[in-house]
Design goal:
The protein is α+β, with helices and mostly antiparallel strands. Helix content is 24%, strand content 39%. The longest helix is centred in the N-terminal third of the chain and has 15 residues.
Length: 111
């Protein structure tokens, strides 16, 4: 498992977005936040649109990134059909557990 530091968050996000390109899904990052008691989790909320196989491929690729990732929530929505299209949209919350965020110094004492 690889870790993402505060300095490499942008690079990690770019890797996730690249997976959209590779899978032909259109990926949109909705929000990014640092969470956890020790700021040790990076939460990404994103959407992906395209055909069902494209979206499924994107999610599979994200799952196999060399980081500790947990999907908190994934939902699929079938969009209204238009002239032979098989349009879907997915909404996902991805938690990066292999994140080295800011260390909370409030419980540390300096001697």
């Amino acid at each position: 498992t690889h870790f993402v530091s505060e300095d490499s968050v942008v690079s990690f996000i770019e890797q996730v977005e690249l997976l959209g390109t590779l899978s032909h899904a259109r990926v949109t990052l909705r929000s990014v936040s640092v969470e956890g008691e020790k700021n040790d989790m990076l939460k990404l909320v994103l959407s992906a649109s395209g055909s069902f196989p494209e979206i499924a491929h994107f999610l599979t690729l994200a799952e196999y990134l060399p980081f500790k990732i947990v999907f908190e929530k994934v939902s699929f929505l079938k969009l209204p059909a238009t002239k032979g299209s098989d349009a879907w949209e997915a909404f996902a919350t991805l938690n990066l557990l292999s994140f080295n965020g800011a260390v909370d110094m409030s419980d540390k004492k300096i001697k």
